[in-house]
Design goal:
By secondary structure, this protein is mainly alpha-helical. The protein is 56% helix and 5% strand. The N and C termini lie far apart (111 Å).
Length: 433
């Protein structure tokens, strides 16, 4: 047997190195090509850090249905999505982006309703109308839910896209980012269709159908919940501002007795995804201490407060962009006072933030002193409102300065959902009118 010479061994080693190098170069080139298709130009400097951490989750009737029934269902769907849903939820999507982005995943509900509707044929909207046959109730509900989910998903996705394209240092291209997200969504959808072609032939019984449906829905909701949790928003809303103000005003929250300046990442870890926006939270004690409604009319306030209290508040807080009222005890919940805020003409975002923090300060003082509405006199209630107003006047500018240093965007935010019912006009404007 002949043994390979040293020159042959060297040549073989060189060929192996060249093949490895050739494969590595091709793999790197392939990786760059895929990145160019699904990631925006300049990544990762043109998007926020949590962009890739956010996952995208994606979520059949009656053969005897007439054309009139199908038309009626289509009309109901359009009315729900284009009129009712847009009017009621449209202005709420930006302030509570993370909440509505997760709620958009109730798109699984129409699928569940479609699968169980054949087993509930006895349920109907009408027993006399020929247009809504037995069993169509769940189909109508499924269509309405599907249109509602589509609207909520579209609006909240647009808000998140704008956030992803706004890194701390620089500005990305929203149009390109939208195109790349659409490419990723297409791949995910096609992958789901491909997997379905292999799985569906094995799902033949009712038990296997609903078992697979349960696991798919659960996995979809879990993936989207984790995706929403990973988003770090730098703008203020009611929940985030409550967390920031509670820790800022409580020296015990700091290790050395100093105020704590939480970063957007810190607040994101504390946020509650499914929360009622009107609740006032004490982030330090981790409990609800009251409720606040922003942008109510004075007429609404007079139906929930004592008339002398409303008049005194209008008199005491003449200067400023808002007037704050404490509702009567019959309007309170079990977790603290109910506070109402009316805005004046020309108010802005910072005025909304100041009003919300004022309500938070009142609820915190009420909770600390263990005050009861039944034994609290109107004068004591007014003293609480005025003293907290002075506290906010002294601390607000320092609070905003610290928030800016911590990385928060103090120039924009959304504290209210929708426009206020009415605003208080200035005397000059009323006179001119």
């Amino acid at each position: 047997l002949s043994h390979p010479t040293s020159s042959q061994q060297t040549a073989r080693t060189t060929d192996t190195s060249r093949n490895r190098l050739f494969n590595e170069k091709h793999l790197q080139a392939l990786g760059r090509s895929i990145s160019a298709v699904f990631l925006p130009a300049g990544y990762p400097n043109t998007v926020t850090p949590e962009f890739c951490s956010s996952l995208s989750g994606f979520g059949v009737g009656n053969a005897l249905a007439s054309a009139t029934q199908a038309l009626l269902l289509s009309v109901l769907k359009d009315v729900c999505s284009r009129f009712t849903s847009a009017y009621h939820f449209g202005t709420s999507l930006y302030p509570e982006t993370k909440t509505f982005r997760f709620l958009a995943n109730v798109s699984m509900t129409p699928i569940v309703l479609d699968t169980i509707s054949p087993y509930f044929t006895s349920i109907s909207l009408s027993t006399t109308s020929p247009y809504i046959s037995s069993g169509s109730t769940l189909q109508i509900a499924a269509l309405c839910m599907r249109s509602l989910c589509s609207l909520v998903a579209g609006g909240s996705e647009a808000a998140l896209t704008d956030h992803f394209a706004s890194p701390v240092n620089g500005k990305g291209d929203v149009g390109e980012l939208n195109a790349k997200i659409a490419s990723r969504s297409t791949v995910v959808t096609l992958t789901g269709v491909l997997l379905g072609t292999f799985i569906v032939p094995y799902i033949t019984t009712r038990t296997s159908i609903y078992t697979a449906l349960f696991f798919l829905v659960f996995g979809h909701l879990l993936a989207n919940y984790l995706a929403v949790r990973s988003v770090v928003l730098r703008s203020f809303n009611r929940q985030r501002s409550s967390i920031l103000w509670s820790t800022f005003r409580n020296p015990k929250a700091g290790a050395d007795g100093r105020s704590v300046y939480l970063t957007p990442r810190d607040v994101s870890n504390r946020e509650i995804i499914l929360d009622i926006p009107s609740r006032i939270h004490d982030a330090v004690a981790d409990r609800v201490i009251g409720h606040c409604s922003l942008g109510v009319s004075v007429q609404y306030a007079m139906t929930h407060c004592n008339t002398p209290h409303v008049l005194k508040m209008l008199q005491h807080i003449q200067e400023g962009p808002y007037v704050l009222f404490v509702a009567e005890s019959r309007s309170w919940g079990r977790r603290g006072p109910c506070i109402l805020v009316s805005f004046k003409e020309g108010y802005g975002f910072l005025d909304q933030l100041r009003a919300w923090l004022h309500a938070l300060e009142i609820a915190a003082m009420w909770s600390t002193r263990h005050m009861r509405p039944s034994v609290t006199s109107p004068s004591e209630m007014e003293d609480v409102v005025l003293s907290t107003h002075e506290t906010l006047r002294e601390e607000f500018s320092g609070f905003m300065r610290c928030m800016k240093e911590a990385g928060w965007n103090i120039e924009e935010g959304a504290m209210t959902m929708g426009s206020p019912g009415s605003v208080i006009m200035s005397p000059e404007t009323t006179k001119d009118a």
